[in-house]
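Escalated from tier 1: magnesium ion holo job.
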Amino acid sequence: MTKKQKKKRNRILVALGIFILLEIFEFAGVFDSFPEPFGLWVEFGAFLIPYLIAGHDVLQKAWHGITHKQPFDENLLMAIATIGAFLLVFFPESEPHMAEGAAVMLFYQVGELFESYAVGKTRKSITAMMDIAPDYANVMRDGELVQVDPNEVAVGSQIVCKAGERVPLDGVVVSGKSQLDTSALTGESVPRVVEEGVQVISGCVNMTGMITVETTSEFSQSTVSRILDLVENASEKKARTENFISRFARYYTPIVVGLALLIAIVSPLLFGQSVPKSIESALVFLVVSCPCALVISVPLSFFSGIGAASRVGVMVKGSSYLEAVSEVDTVAFDKTGTLTNGTFGVVDVHTAEGVDRDLLLSYAAHAEAYSDHPIALSVIESYSGTINRDQIDNVEELSGKGVSANVNSHKVLIGNDKLMKTEGIDAPDCELVGTILHVSLDGEYLGHIIIADMMKDDAKEAITNLHKAGVKKTVMLTGDREEVAAAVAKELGVDEYRAQLLPQDKVTKVEELLAQQSEKGKLAFVGDGINDAPVLVRADVGIAMGAMGSDAAIEAADIVLMDDKPSRIATAINIARKTMRIVRQNIVFAIGVKVVIMILALPVVGLANMWLAVFGDVGVTVIAILNAMRCLRVNE
Ligand code: ADP
Ligand code: MG
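Tier 2 regenerated the structure:
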């Protein structure tokens, strides 16, 4: 509990103590022992004490609302209802309602306290998960290890991570061996073993050994900063339901106040009810009509749902996307880097007549030296010689086709048969299954490298789980060869695939799929590369790979999978559906109970009193909040 909450709690307890004492006095007939008109006024003044102790801030807020021309909120409702209850004292023929007035305020405040506690708790458990911001980085300065602000560490610096410390920046291990706890980022509980040459991402906790890391990005571009940015901006993108509720509250309160007035005026005139009885009905109506249960529990549910998702490594950039992903019935995937690891191994090299194998590999590696494509990285990785970067210029990435570059003033092309065709170079077919990289030098065909990718461990599970979650169609869209696409699609159980697509073809294909969508169903696209960004934007829900994915894809996406596991998509859908289910439950429950009590409160029915109204407001709010907090729990 925060200090402010404690203060409020103490205030409520004091007021409650006085209130109970007064009720005992009343029961014992203390107030009746005063001479006739005075007893009532002593009682009036006495109950005013706990009322003001508990509720003076509510009255202040209501007044503030009136003077600032935004009066219609729950504070006003409470103020009118409770002041009204006290004012019934002016109708001598009716029972006085001071005790109820004080009680309504007291319980309303109990509900408020509970609510702020629940919201605080939810927020805290999310920030605890998000408590990944490192305070410092250890760098060597003049032979001594000093702690500096991670913001001040330049790319390519060496930093030291000791056991128990958080990795402050993204980088590659240059020495040492250790185990990393990545659970805060990915929800993965098994520690990751890292050693020389392995990439580490910031935000993980180094558990066992000391490692030296060469940083590969600045702090502002590191994984931690990117995640924290996402979390901070998440609440800006509000879901349709959320916007609906806040608009609803804006129009609803004035309507309710108007209706209450109508009840108070019309029922004595038309139905011959007594004036105090009608006013009482109107007050009960006001108390129960308070929309807090919805105004609080709906955003809380979304917030908790986003928190639950981030716990398993799924960053949802706003509640609108949580709502959208709950309606997904078609999922389209990019292949390389999304369903496959994107780390290719060289299967074979076929050279043209008289071409030396090493020469071909050398030209290939040089041409790829400046590309970030998974293919390029794998070609460079498998090249054993050194790459002389001075010899390379005029590098051009031909998206979906390959690369063109000048190496030693010779024009080298490397890519698929589309590239060879557009350049008018004859390239033979290859019977091997794999991705084929044709290489040419100054228009002469040198041969091709056959490389093959590995499926991600959970790729098959990802597709199976999606189907289990009720997704109707899974589609794979790839720029790779027909043969490779067919083999992958078959092995994973993907419903449809399209091969040899250029990036713009992927957009067209996704637009076709969108056109086939039913009214309700949404389409998600999952990708990793720079050239996937336009497709990610176009789809109803764009999902990007967070660890290996390009910045452009992460930026364009609505949802980011921190550990690049496609199986998390089904988990995200399940979390989103659960959240939406709870939101709907709360809406139906809160409105239902309130409508029933409102009807009972009508003067003609006359079955509801203030006490029931208090339950209808505070009780329903508390139950709705408890229900909303269930969204925090993940059952995978
Ligand atoms: P995917 O859709 O499977 O993610 P891309 O659209 O990134 O694949 O690339 C499609 C095809 O273009 C690749 O299969 C490859 O044949 C060729 N290609 C793309 N980039 C390169 C590169 N840097 N070097 C060689 N070939 C490339
Ligand atoms: Mg890709």
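The chain has a mean pLDDT of 88.
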